[in-house]
């Protein structure tokens, strides 16, 4: 029998598809799917890019709240307290 011009061998395919094959226990597409979970597509990197700027915004907001509490005292907060007693 002449070899298949495409390189496909039905006997190798049947051997690999049998339950006794060492390949039967492994996912044949695992190597092709591995890129989805490595490098820039890892779970941490996907989560990290979920909220861009959240870390900088949180630090800036905390700094502003601290600045407001320490340096921006409201001198007129008690100005109108005595006006309502006589009404």
UniProtKB/TrEMBL annotation:
Transmembrane segments: 49-67
Location in or out of the cell: Mitochondrion inner membrane
GO annotations of cellular component type: mitochondrial inner membrane
Keywords assigned: Electron transport, Membrane, Mitochondrion, Mitochondrion inner membrane, Respiratory chain, Transmembrane, Transmembrane helix, Transport
GO BP terms, alphabetized: electron transport chain; mitochondrial respiratory chain complex I assembly
Annotated membrane topology: Single-pass membrane protein
InterPro entries assigned: NDUFB3
Biological role stated in the UniProt entry: Accessory subunit of the mitochondrial membrane respiratory chain NADH dehydrogenase (Complex I), that is believed not to be involved in catalysis. Complex I functions in the transfer of electrons from NADH to the respiratory chain. The immediate electron acceptor for the enzyme is believed to be ubiquinone.
Family recorded in the similarity comment: Belongs to the complex I NDUFB3 subunit family.
Name recorded for this polypeptide: NADH-ubiquinone oxidoreductase B12 subunit
Gene source species: Penicilliopsis zonata CBS 506.65
